From TrEMBL:
The keyword Membrane applies. It is found in: Membrane. This is Yos1-like protein. Pfam families: Yos1. The keyword Protein transport applies. The chain crosses the membrane at residues 46-70, 107-125. It comes from Papaver atlanticum. GO terms for cellular component: COPII-coated ER to Golgi transport vesicle; endoplasmic reticulum membrane; Golgi membrane. One of its GO terms (biological process) is protein transport.
Length: 127
């Protein structure tokens, strides 16, 4: 895109102008990309602030689901996590508390099913 002129100084000026124009175009393009990235990050942060409590509740529901499906015979007893091992006086230890939590979530499977259904409906409605 260089102009055909007899004067070599004009060609040099045109060349410098084209370089400067390309530099400005690249600078504006990178600024535009960083501005788009910044606006996307700020909208993502806003979404995390808005959905923070819902996401936390979903996380607890997933954890409760994971604890509710643990099988005592196949998974817990071979590892020493059966309820019979801590039913004595060792229920105050951390291991005893965790085993009690596992058995409580297994006992409350019906409310977990209801909460899962509510969560699915809310997700389907809200998108």
């Amino acid at each position: 895109m260089q102009l055909q002129t007899p004067n070599s100084s004009l060609r040099k000026q045109d060349h410098e102008y084209l370089l400067l124009e390309k530099l400005n175009h690249d600078t504006l393009k990178s600024f535009s990309v960083s501005l788009k990235r910044h606006s996307a990050l700020s909208s993502l942060r806003l979404a995390y602030r808005i959905m923070g409590l819902w996401t936390l509740l979903e996380g607890f529901l997933l954890l409760a689901n994971a604890l509710a499906i643990l099988n005592e015979d196949r998974f817990l007893a071979p590892r020493g996590w059966s309820f019979a091992e801590v039913s004595g006086g060792r229920t105050k230890s951390l291991k005893g508390q965790l085993i009690g939590l596992i058995y409580a979530t297994q006992y409350l499977r019906l409310p977990l099913i209801v909460l899962n259904a509510i969560t699915i409906v809310v997700k389907l409605v809200s998108g």
